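Inputs:
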Amino acid sequence: MTPTDPDADAPAAPADRVRTLTRPDHEAARDLAAAALQRGDLLTVVGRCTVTYEGRAASELGPGDRHLTCKPDGTAMVHSDEGRQPVNWQPPGSEHEVSLHDGHLRVRSTREPPTEELVVDFERVLHVGAFDVTDEADLALVGTEEHLRERILDDPALVEPGFTPLATERETAAGAVDVFGEDAAGRTVVLELKRRRAGPDAVSQLARYVDALARDLHADAEVRGILVAPSATDRARRLLDERGLEFVALAP
Amino acid sequence: MTPTDPDADAPAAPADRVRTLTRPDHEAARDLAAAALQRGDLLTVVGRCTVTYEGRAASELGPGDRHLTCKPDGTAMVHSDEGRQPVNWQPPGSEHEVSLHDGHLRVRSTREPPTEELVVDFERVLHVGAFDVTDEADLALVGTEEHLRERILDDPALVEPGFTPLATERETAAGAVDVFGEDAAGRTVVLELKRRRAGPDAVSQLARYVDALARDLHADAEVRGILVAPSATDRARRLLDERGLEFVALAP
DNA sequence: TTGTGGATGTCGCCG
DNA sequence: CGGCGACGTCCACAA
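Outputs:
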């Protein structure tokens, strides 16, 4: 927290839900940023800065123009002008603090564990913004692996005629199997589902479950493993063949 | 870049590197946003909006306050007040456009392939910002898997006395092996490196390489596989044992 | 363009 | 908390 305002018991003015400064001096920027963190606002800072990170790894980033976001949940992100990924960040649950260092505006974010520290040092501030935002809505997403599973449970013949699902997330020594069932001949079947084109790791995953189940059941039990995905790479196909596993093309 | 302005030979006014509006009406917001996209600025919009996405999957998001970023490289991100991940986004290379719909400010981002469309519809705009930002600096990151590899090549005895690296990224039928070498007895050794605690997938990956190499070489060739990581989960240890593979504890 | 595997992955779920 | 696997993963790099 900021080292100010221990007892703001006087009813704060119903401040604007948005407060911004353009090209503020560093003290004004610090004040607005500190107030934003204090109030649990979303804080944005744009300007020329350097960034250092130390934690699971460590990084240095020289001067450049970037966009910093500090969320009320403790997330911090430093975005450059390119890329979907922030160039540096701190996960939710971190604590942010703002200060002046050598006449620079410094935002420091720490968390623990693991111990991680992100320091963003602005030598020039183009913009500071404090936003009182709330979001109650939930994202409704379709086309996931879960939908593929529902499709199969709805109509098991999509996998093959006579296939009967018996369980989902069935536990084995190697982990939980996506769909567990049996074929028309009563043989055990394991499905591994992928919402998109499957690669070698999907095959390895399926193989782990098949091996584990074959061991869990009788030594003589035959266990079929079927990879269900819209498509599979050549290498994945080859690995399937080598392991005596099968493939069924099916999309979410 | 924007697909316009073939001959902007008239010297553009040395416009501010930052232009923002607070609680603009939708037309003013549209004008500033359009100018920002035109100029290749970083565009930010904060306000109450709904979001729809359709492409590799599809999603709907009801009304809430969010922060939209459009980068000059075609990236778009919609951030809510929580989480490190944007609630919706568009990858770099997309094209953004801004318009008025039913009196709302609408930002639409599309790309191809795959065909994907993101529509952000603001019913209330708290803030619009246009920032002329550049970032030449490169991130210097340490503690990656590559550093672990360099550590091993520097001092192969960290793996075991007598270990001799012969190649990195050596190709096999199953893909490229992290480190390929031989032990003191001249046996072929495959290393799979992980910068952090290793799980079952790391073991499967190593097993794929060992199997492929044993096949590529002679049928009677013995190939040792060693997982090198700071630590490994119980399940990973068990899988290593089952497959006759080994583990060496080593951190980047 | 596609394939492949790393990532400070993040995130949710479950023991 | 740690393990485990999905993700509209993103991303760089190689073929």
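Remarks. Chain A has four helices and 14 strands. Chain A touches chain B through 68 residues (CB under 8 Å).
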